[in-house]
Write a structure and sequence with these properties.
The longest helix is centred in the C-terminal third of the chain and has 28 residues, at 416-443. This protein has helices at residues 4-29, 33-48, 51-54, 58-77, 79-85, 87-90, 98-112, 117-141, 155-176, 181-201, 207-222, 227-246, 255-272, 274-290, 303-308, 334-354, 360-377, 387-411, 416-443, 448-463, and strands at 145-147, 152-154. Helix 4 packs antiparallel against helix 7 and helix 16 packs antiparallel against helix 17. The protein starts with a helix and ends in an 8-residue tail after the last helix. Mean pLDDT is 84; it is low at 293-301 and 315-327. By secondary structure, the chain is mainly alpha-helical. It is built from 20 helices and 2 strands. A hairpin with a 4-residue loop joins strand 1 and strand 2. It folds into 2 domains: 4-225, no CATH class; 233-470, no CATH class.
Length: 471
Amino acid sequence: MPAVWLSILLVLTTLGGVMMALYHWQRLASPHPELVRKLLHIPMGLMTLSFPWLFETVQPVLLVGGLAIATLLALRYYPPLASRFGQVLGGVKRRSLGEIYFPLSVMLLFGLTPHQPLLFCIPILILTLADAVAALIGTYYGHYRYTATEGQKSAEGSIGFFTVTFLSVHIPLLLFSSTGRAESLLIALILGLLVMLLEAIAWQGLDNLLIPLGSFLLLTTYVEMDVAALGVRLAVLLGLSLLVWGWHDRTTLNDSALLGAILVGYFCWAIGGWPWLVAPLTLLISYPFLIYRVFPLQAPLSPTERQWMAWLPDDAALPVTRWHPPHWQRVHNVHAVLGVAAAGLCWLFIYRVTNASALLYPYTLAFAANLAIIGIAGLPRDRYWAREQMQWVGVYALLSWLLLYAPLIVMHQFAHTAVLSALLGLVGIGGVAIAYYCTQPKLRQSNSRFQWLCRVVYTLLGSLAALLPLS
């Protein structure tokens, strides 16, 4: 193994040389900015594949990564450097910190995989090749577009990402590990699909952090499984994908939000099992039925109501009946999905750490409270404080409680703890519903991030009520 300082010098010199070469090529030929960006991305990634053989400890990698981040920040924000070399990174006009997340993910991954080069190289290979191939295919050949968290992405690019990810996992596992052929095939298929979904919903360059770390966590989990367990996971992932995507015409979720919903559902099932999938799946399927009331069933909306409920389709767009609503305008992105699922995912994480199965109760309450909030959010602004509107707050709380807690009580065979937790769950849902109803007019005047944050806080605090029978 080369001397540490010689290895550090080799890495920094190589990356600096690539940067200078791309800078001069950009000045002479004016290539597409995305091509320049990815031609920097690929050599950076390929160079880091050598780290397990260049460095024995994490400290040199932290030094190289820290210098790389400092240099990239200077190229972005220090005017003398940004004016000359910044276009190599910033030629693509979008807000992104992807070049910063890249060395950060390399440092984290190297620290997580001491003396395990395969677990380090496969995620880096995915990040290096799959992401670049997807971006270039989408730029030059992408025709079938879908709505991403920021802007649009192409189906061709996502298929390219899946293909390269599949090969980046399947070939190394077959050649450099004891994993069986069938297991390697199934692991590559599952990782290809899941990491493709992660890439599709990421924003502001977060894919450079989510892809390698997510790939590492999935890989360490799945290499220990047999063919039967992997087959079940692939079947569940495909089944959830078909179900969620097939339901898209009845939701307000855009493409990125639907992909995020698939990931949330899959990870809830993969971590907790079938009982933990019931709540998020019930919410996704049932929430459109709770907001039929905001549609103009008899008369068109007033101008004020139309302005307040801008997400609804035009009055004359499609005929409306009680059981066959029109196609929704799909205005909610992945941030909305994460906002709705955040409190439940917190309980799921605590369950994963503690293995306390009783945490299913506050987990369910968190999703039920969010379902009530979704109904209340559709109440018209006109006559907002009228008695009939306040009655709907109780109706939405009760319906949400019935929809999500009834399956829970049945699954636990009407056990005393389950019934008591359900009764307290109704109190928690009602408290969250009242709190949201009272503050919604003020929340509507703030930015969307603050609104979603308040929803997370309300549902997380309200879900604590389900813990009382357990204390």
